Amino acid sequence: MTDTWIISANKNIAALVDLGREYGGKVNVIVAGDVDIAGVDRVIRIPIEKDAPVEVAAPVFGNVLAGLANRGDMILAANRPAERVLAAAAAARLGAPIFTGLRHAQPDGDLATGHLARFGGIADQDVAFRGPYVAVVDGGGEIEGEAVESEDASHNTAAADTYSARIVSEEKDNVQSAQLNQAQRIVCAGRGFNNKEDLSLAEDLAKAVDGELGCTRPLSEGTSWMSRDRYIGISGVSVSPDLYIAAGVSGQIQHTSGINDAKVIVAINNDPDAPIFEQADYGIVGDVYQIIPALTQALQS
Ligand SMILES: Cc1cc2nc3c(=O)[nH]c(=O)nc-3n(C[C@H](O)[C@H](O)[C@H](O)COP(=O)(O)OP(=O)(O)OC[C@H]3O[C@@H](n4cnc5c(N)ncnc54)[C@H](O)[C@@H]3O)c2cc1C
I need a surface site. Which of 57, 58, 100, 188 has the fewest CB within 10 A? Predict the structure, then answer.
């Protein structure tokens, strides 16, 4: 039986657990620090000091997996900064390949196989390896289920020394982390908006539909009007909401490859020939500065 090993420093791993259940074998979590893990078959805990960053445990994750992961097993990590480091360290220790864009996984004898989205979903690829592979994917929401008692990592392998580092200060920015990949409704602002202040129109519409505000890359990486975790597309986030409203978005493929799984797409653009209309279920040809306030008002009343 081929198993799944989830590398984690966080309890937001529901999507990884789902992938593991689909894979069929046992779903095991190796977790750093005091995070409570529920709803899986086995939890191995790597203790770390309170003032240490989880990355100090990177060599131990690799060693635990080297002792436990078998041929055909799948190793998953959430696409978050700390877990990316842990996943990379594990892949290096195991000499295993590391992927992004894993959509489905199914075992095939002692082969680790997976179905990957390539180029932001424009192409698909099936992979199969004789050893385990590591995949970094969206972690999803918080795991639910019965609490699982954890085992100490040192029972399973000779734990390598952790790196020596501690956090000496923390500076929090005011950016609210967006969970766009879990949002059911998204309003996406594009370069049809002339100023950062005007984005309040899109924000009001997002509130009126009880959704999240996202953007195209130029609004994040070009102008820095919005944080990087809010831009959608091939190099940003892939989303799958029930409703996606593209406002002042042209619809270049680097953007639309991130919305292939949206159920209903509404586009507002003043150019009737904008490519976004080819993918939209509903299109409004008009000025975002007129259409959006009118829509918001209609939804609020
Ligand atoms: C390697 C690479 C990776 C990339 N990755 C991404 C990615 O992940 N995500 C992403 O978004 N982009 C990405 N891009 C950029 C992408 O190619 C486009 O440049 C970008 O998506 C365009 O953003 P936009 O639609 O906001 O702007 P534009 O293409 O400039 O479109 C603005 C649209 O607004 C309309 N408009 C203007 N004024 C109004 C108004 N008043 N009312 C209504 N409509 C109006 C215009 O008609 C136009 O269609 C990438 C590019 C490269 C090269």
Answer: 100
